Amino acid sequence: MGFNLGTALGGALTGLFTTGNPIVAGVEGVAGAFGGASGVGTAGNGIVGALNAASEADNIALMAENLRHQSAMEWQATWFDEMMDEKSETMRESNTLRDVDMEERKADNQITKKFIASITE
User: Fold this and answer.
1) HEC profile of the chain
2) What is the pLDDT of residues 106-116, one digit of tens each?
3) Domain total for the chain?
4) I want to staple 11 with a disulfide (CB 3.0 to 4.6 A). Which of 28, 46, 78, 85 is the partner?
């Protein structure tokens, strides 16, 4: 097996046009130069397969990060909702106590008015 310039150029051009990656084109050119036409396809397929595997691994990592982020956001929303429910309940209790206090004041005022009226008679 010797150096073949034709298959080197063919492999490089094939790698460049099929993947658009100059590194892949260079590897396919070298494979074509020393391995012939059948080596170009095998080397190119191996490199493209490795690039696809790396891309898939990156995508899986991104999906895992997205799931972690979504889970954190859902927990934060749940905690916020629980806090707001508790705050609303506290405000309802405060309003009820304020209403009871106002009724007591009205009753005290009525008793005071009747007492004053009974003294002045």
Assistant:
1) CCCCHHHHHHHHHHHHHHHCCHHHHHHHHHHHHHHHHHHHHHHHHHHHHHHHHHHHHHHHHHHHHHHHHHHHHHHHHHHHHHHHHHHHHHHHHHHHHHHHHHHHHHHHHHHHHHHHHHHHC
2) 999 999 998 88
3) 1
4) 28
